[in-house]
Sequence to fold (859 residues):
Amino acid sequence: MTAGPLTTPVEVRPSPGRPKKSSRGWWTATAIVLLPALIPPISLGWQVLTKGTGTMLPLGRLLELFASTVGLTLAVTITALSIGTATAWLTNRTDIPARAVWMILAALPLVIPSYMAALTIIGATGPNGLISSWLGFTIPTPYGFVGAWLALSIFLAPMTHLIVSPALRLIDPATEEAATSLGAGQRRAFFTVTLPQLRPALVSAGLMVGLYTVSDFGAVSLLRFDTFTRAIFTLYEGQIDRRPAAALSLVLIILALAILFIERRSRSRAGYAMTRARRARRPVEMHGWPKGLSMAFLFAFAFVSLVVPISVLVFWLIRGLSAGAELGVFWDETLRSLGVSLAAAGLAALASLPVAMVTTWKRNKLSGAVESATWAIYSLPHITVGIAVVVFALTWARPLYQTVFLLVLTYVAMFMAQSVSTVQDSLRRVSPVLEDASRGLGRGPLQTLARVTVPLASPGLAAGAALVFLSVMKELPATLLLRPNGFETLAIRIWSATGEGFYTMASVASLALLTVSILPLLALTYRDLSD
Amino acid sequence: MKRLVILAAAGALIVTACGSGGTDSPLIIYSGRSEELVQPLIDHFTESTDIDVEVRYAGSTDLAATLLQEGDSTDADVFFAQDPASLGSVASLLARLPQSVLDAVDPKFADRNGQWVGTSGRVRTFVYNTDTSLELPQTIDDVTDPRWFGEVGVAPTNGSFLAFVSAMILERGEDATLRWLQSLAANDPQDYPKNSPIVLATDSGEIDGGLVNHYYLLRLRAEGEGNNSENWFIPAGDVGTLVMPAGAGILSGTDMPEAARQFVEFLLSEEAQTYFAAETFEFPLIPGVQPAEGLPALEDLSTPDIDLSELADVLDDATRLVSEAGLV
Fold:
């Protein structure tokens, strides 16, 4: 996948000759698939207006939560962008040994949910931790800000890696060659020529990482760092009165919308045109200490993000088995997770097609608004979406309450933005000439869609479906609230087993979740390798 | 695009295949007790009675709030909760249980109005690392003594801690409870999201002790760890050794009253009580069934004298006080 939601990494193509008539259907379809985005603000607004807020948190506490949330978000975004850009550059643009293997390894931690990351950090450190026992001395468990920052940065860096990698490959080598031939060193060329061209990809990676951090509740709960989302969850879980949690969710929704609004107003519309004929690029040759340092960095990253978590899980499994713990294999849970993930992935990719089409065709206020709506719902913490959808279903759609249908619909609404951005990226590479030619040769708009546009957009659709699949597999808070009775998924089993101290069970469910997630992730990285 | 449709359809197919395999109208239980703990028992109930059961697992308070939000339109037939506060807060939705059911346990472990009955005993305790050089607390107030500065683990957002604070409000009143919470907060307590990480941290020596429920240590031992710590039942007869029964009630709107009653009776059967003792390490509440090895008899503990039916009325106050004291 490349780039972003809010960006135009390649050139913005005007399309004067595009027929108006066929577009009406796409706008209608767009409006329909975006309708669920209205549910959270409307339901929560209605609830707060008609039922009040209950006893709200004091203002001082709200400001404190605001500050800690913003602080964590900034720290995680900067760190994850730095690590992800470094792994992307090393694996895409240099001649380090086993480049392809590193490219996959750097993306792989994306399958690890944040709560599992936090859980394994706790299991690895402390006096009885696995790493402590390897080293022979105790590494203290990094509770609070440091722990949350580490867990989220390490496991969000792969997201940056996946977004920046294709963008790096798209940069016209001529610009860098020009810089070096004019006497700029490698480093100067990177900072003055390469980095500015990566800006659109970095902005969208930053947005994804930042929004994820705001909405995360697993890592901050387990590692004990108070953010807005954790406060909402605490209110929701610990209090009979549901009104304060709903009111606080509404505050957070307004905050998220404000961030998006500011982001849209301030973003640069500059694009970088690329010459169409791509030439093979010579990789940057690495020697001496930079090579040593780079390899050390990659090894360290793979160790912390993959070796440690998997070792902790396997260690728990073995320890539990040798203590005679009974081992359940979670077939039903695995199938349910797989089922809803597949359904949501397929539907989200389909739904993203009209949205991506209308926003790629034309850049105007309306398409800008459409894009904002897609990202608005993606940016909401899942716990707030869950709370809002429960209110919505109980008030206006009782038959849908606690149904798989509503659960999948919510997943689609929450994660569609991921697919929209990958499909947009594919569509931008489709020359309008091809579509015009098809129309000119007498094909109708639908036939043109089926024969020309969709096949050309298919890499984006596939990547989008894979990303949504991974997100749904890991999703926890909305699933907790919206699942039907008895509908336990792997994520839910991991969470509940952890809470009760059944680490053997948690490790079995975790390993199952990782196994199921690896296939779509490999599909994603395979695309990168073959690009 | 065709592939995407196939993908979505495959997903839908898998979901329907494994969604609910049972009959059209199973007995629906909202369980605040976790799946790991009670599913084996429920499976056994289904085997012996042929009644299909569908369970919604979540936190007890969470489910109580959900029940109130769903109101009369709820599909739930039975509410099986971890603590009396959650059960009490949905009293308006519960039916009165048959006297025979209520009579199975000591009246102090059942609702005053007969709307819920205790099914197993969970006791608040002070877990400590056996290497500690600190003198163990004789009263709950000793826990806030400066000698324990920075060494006590608490889970201030956890349901059982809030139930404990609620009980303290009933015992001492709001002001005194706030003062106790404030002195706890001033003593640099280490906060954790749940009980089990407190026990882990105590066992590893990260902290010297913590306020938890008694069974987490026993569970940790069943996983092959937990050999560096012990439970200490504070002997003063205050809320430090509070008994919080898990319990069950039947929704008055149930469409399966007979099956619901059978389920609650099953929870009080010798078989289920033995299961609680042996598998979840809780105290059985019917006469004749012994608690797990290493635990004292319930009667031998110095427990506070509190009407558990009133816990629900002060639960939200407890949450407010915990936050006012700066613990969350």
